[in-house]
Amino acid sequence: MEPLILSTLFLISSHVVPGLPGVRSSLVHALGRRLFLAFYSAISLAALVLVVWSYRAANSGEWLYLPPVEVKMIAVLAMPLALFLLVGRLTTPAGTPEPVGIYRITAVPGSLSVLLWTLLHLTVLGGARQVIVFTGMAIIALFSLVRNWRAASAAQHRAGILPFSGIIRGSERLVWKEIGWGRLLLPLALWAALLLFHPVVIGPDPLAYLF
User: Taking CA 113 as the corner, what is the angle to CA 169 and CA 195, rounded to the nearest 5 degrees?
Assistant: First the structure.
């Protein structure tokens, strides 16, 4: 497992270090924006390739814990929330003076969706190599969430981090026409497609957790 741990740490560093305060601006100033982006992309790709290679080489028979069936059911049923946040983030402008749509529900929809996705997978995957990789991804998502929260405007902060927390507190309001049925139904369609094709493309069958 040592190569997988080291490659996962490398992947984490490739995302976290350039995002540290002052580091990115210093690198862009020293290398130029294009060279920095090319260098960053190459390092990130190399780290990902190393993770995939070391994951395949790691022992798949080592388990850290055996998730209960009830937890697996909850994870499958909660996945649409992560997809809803992701779809909202990809279809809603982020730079408006006043938050709209998904940004009234949470100030950090994109990074929160990835964090929720990784945490849900951690609850259902107890294999050592799976836990290592998804823990690394969760750390990257958490770092991104904190960075995005700090960069958010005061108006965006009204929504809070947890979904609907600002609306519950009364500091923000839900405007349904800014969400619409499309952003609600598309995540459900994606969820259904993932349930259908997950065993074909990836392996484990999530539907087995529900029946």
Answer: 125
The SS3 assignment for 58 reads coil
- How many other CB atoms are there within 10 angstroms of residue 208's CB atom? 11
Residues 6+ apart with CB under 8 A from 195: 76, 206, 207
- CA dist 51 and 6 (Å) reads 9
DSSP labels, 52-117:
HHHHHHS-TT-BS----HHHHHHHHHHHHHHHHHHHHHHHS-S--SS--GGGGT-S-HHHHHHHHH
211: confidence class by pLDDT, cuts 50, 70, 90 = low
Rg (CA), the chain: 19
Cβ atoms of 52 and 115 within 8 Å: the answer is no
Contact 8, 133 (CB under 8 A): yes
Within 10 angstroms of residue 163's Cβ, the number of other Cβ atoms is: 20
pLDDT in tens, 88-139: 999 998 878 899 999 999 999 999 999 999 999 999 888 899 999 999 999 9
CA distance 55 to 44: 16
Nearest to 3 by CA among 127, 129, 136: 129
The model carries a pTM of 0.87
